[in-house]
Amino acid sequence: MVGTSTSTRRIGSVARRSRMRRVGESAYGLLLLARHLLLGLLVVLVVAAGVWASWHPARAAMGGAGRGTMTVTRCTDDRCTGTYAPASPGAARRDTVVLDETVGIHKGAKIPVATAHGDEVVRTGSAGLVRACLPLGGALVLAAVVIAGGLRLRKTGWVTGLLGLAVLAAAALTM
């Protein structure tokens, strides 16, 4: 048996691997499968968290129950407060509402908003919708790293990352 390794035996015309080598190969295959399943689950979890965080603000921005205009009276580092004047004649006017974003807002600005829950409001229109999708854009960028690096799906990772960056860039441009 010249040219055959010690882990294979030739039986007839078929080379057969030893039992330990076959067990080792199947265990390695099982580890690869477990790795792909866990990383796939991680990608699904990250994207699902982004959708979950974006869902309620986006739903309110697209068709919130109470649409109107907020006049900004005061802004801090992380939120602005002001008065709310409803667009529909039967809705109640509010003296204090809170908007959780301060980028591009100054005192006295009139912003189209929709009521989210309690005294919180979100922007409406394309700016509000894109702003509400920021968590989803960030989740897509994070998932792209796992897809390209961990799952070795580079083209899918690039597409996912570029979609996430497009959402983040659109949010930055509409602020």
Write the layout of secondary structure elements.
Blueprint: E1 8-11, E2 14-17, H1 19-63, E3 67-75, E4 80-86, E5 94-99, E6 110-117, E7 120-123, H2 125-132, H3 134-150, H4 154-174
Parallel strand pairs: 5-7
Antiparallel strand pairs: 1-2, 3-4, 3-6, 4-5, 6-7
How do you describe this structure in short?
This protein has helices at 19-63, 125-132, 134-150, 154-174; strands spanning 8-11, 14-17, 67-75, 80-86, 94-99, 110-117, 120-123. With 175 residues, it is of the alpha+beta class.
In words, what does this structure look like?
The protein is α+β, with helices and mostly antiparallel strands and 175 residues long. The protein folds into 2 domains: 40-62 and 124-175; 65-123, OB fold (Dihydrolipoamide Acetyltransferase, E2P), CATH 2.40.50. Helices cover 52% and strands 24% of the residues. It contains 4 helices and 7 strands, in the order E-E-H-E-E-E-E-E-H-H-H. The chain has helices at 19-63, 125-132, 134-150, 154-174; strands spanning 8-11, 14-17, 67-75, 80-86, 94-99, 110-117, 120-123. A 5-stranded mixed beta barrel has the order 3-4-5-7-6. A two-stranded antiparallel sheet has the order 1-2. A hairpin with a 7-residue loop joins strand 4 and strand 5. Helix 1 (19-63) packs antiparallel against helix 3 (134-150) and helix 3 runs antiparallel to helix 4. The model has no long low-confidence stretch (mean pLDDT 87).
Approximate strand percentage: 15-25%
Helix content: 40-55%
**H-E string:** EEHEEEEEHHH
- Total count of helical runs of at least 4 residues: 4
Strand order of the largest sheet: 3-4-5-7-6
Strands, total number = 7
What is the averaged pLDDT score? 87
Shape: rod-shaped
Q: Report the uncertain regions.
A: none
Counting structural domains, the number is 2
Alpha-carbon distance between the two ends: 75 Å
**Overall radius of gyration:** 27 Å
Task: Give me the secondary-structure category.
Answer: alpha+beta
Largest sheet: 5 strands, mixed, barrel
